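Changelog excerpt

This revision adds worked examples to the README so contributors can see how folded entries look when concatenated. The first example is reproduced verbatim below.
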Amino acid sequence: MRYIILVLLNLPIILLALLNIVTQYKLKKVSKQRLHHQVLLWLAVLLVLICSFPVYNILTGKPLFDSSELSLFDIVQTTVLIFLFYIVNRQRQAIEQNEKSFRELHQELSIKLSKEKYE
């Protein structure tokens, strides 16, 4: 039961990350390569989340979905780590978009200043 709670708490975060990257791709804010990279990243996080505990149980000889050792602290800790990973990733994306805008504005300003210089 605890394992299901863990997955259900983290699934919306991962789905939100996937939705955000697809939205940014549709709005032409990220490249196709970045889209593939981010989708693979979040699918890997989802795969690790779903498979890590059952694999651990198999390796320790316990029933597949036995979550008796999974404490509330473990659930909260894992959820907070995935949420922080999401926040850091979003901040990195925002910084990259700001840098791109800044470069484009700087380029436009340079072009306008050079035109004024030659006029």
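The second example, added in the same revision:
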Amino acid sequence: MPSTVKKNHAKPRLPRRKPAASKPADILAAPVTKSEPAYININERSVELAAKNRLLWIIVAIFSIVLAIFWLFVLRASIAKETENIDLSRIGEQISASLARFDTEIKNRAMPKEITSEDMAAIKNVIEEQIKSNPDSSAWPTHELEALKISIQYPSDWSSAANIKTAVISDQKSTGAASETGKSGKITITAKSNARKLSLADWQKANNISFDGLTAERPIFAISTSSIESMIYQSSSMEANLIKYSAYLNSLDNKTVYEITVEGRGDNAYYRPLTEEIIRTIKILK
């Protein structure tokens, strides 16, 4: 029997093909994996800088404390040296002397001093200078002369003496004798009847008043400011340091004419404005 030979009909193997390249769509669809970027931590540098600043301030503080301690020691040494040079006993003596002088000064001021004639003269000179520049009657005291039925003002260093018909006002009492200072002022006021209520000119004619050596000067009262009729008569014979004039005041209410004579020696510039201001203060009492 013939042998049977089995034939292997195996198919020939084809060579493997390489896989085709991926399509563009596959490439886009595939996820892209990238590494994360590295970040810088800015806080790490700030912490380091803060530590350095803190260390710097600590060093500065320590140096300042050392410097202050050194300055205190130097100051203490300087004060000690100056204290050694100060003489405390001498300072105590000076303080005691100053207190003694102060105590003496207080006692001297407390004790009243006697006013001498030189002091009075100095005070009078000051008053005179003030009156020369502007005699002001507003500060003068008012005096009532009941016998003459008038009131009058004059400076406090003047005085008056009056009787029934006459009053004399002068500064000779306060300043002493005229020979001591060479200055004196006097105003004499005499009340004369004017029963018929004549005008001043008619009364003068009726009473034969002589004006020899006198010149009519001006009214002492302005007509618009006073109801008193008045007139000043100046002496025509004038001397260097002498004033002499007369004034008449006519009060119809009191039926009286007041005859006023004025004398001033030693300083015409002082007595003329002063005496006129005194006369202007006259008021009629009812």
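Reviewer comment on example two: Strands lie at 142-145, 150-153, 159-162, 166-170, 184-193, 214-218, 229-235, 242-251, 256-265, 283-284. The chain has two domains: 44-109, 139-284.
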